[in-house]
Amino acid sequence: MLHDLQRGGSFMLQVDTQAISSVRWLPSDTEIKAREILRMGVLPAYRRQGLSQHLIEVVTHRAQRADINELLLAVRA
After folding, report:
1. pLDDT at residue 43, as a whole number
2. Could you give the C-alpha distances from 54 to 1, 6, 33, 61, in angstroms and in order?
């Protein structure tokens, strides 16, 4: 995981000192300049408040500043 974080990045949302939501991404293995969003989660008590949307927006803005052409997200239940 440390190797992944060195190649990619992450953001975390906190309430006081408790981490309540996070997202992690890596460069994709494709030839295009893309990032894969690998992990995104929100603690159950904080769901349905739009926090995932905020995380996606932060990653999107970061990608735009880094001239990333595409973000890839796989979803599973």
Report:
1. 93
2. 24, 23, 23, 11
Burial zone of 12 (CB within 10 Å; 0-12 exposed, 13-18 middle, 19+ buried) = exposed
What is d(CA 54, CA 2) in angstroms, rounded to the nearest whole number? 24
Which pLDDT value is given to residue 5? 52
Query: Which superfamily does CATH assign the domain made up of 2-73 to?
Result: Gcn5-related N-acetyltransferase (GNAT) (3.40.630.30)
Residue for token pair 């970061």: 62
State residue 71's pLDDT score.
Answer: 86
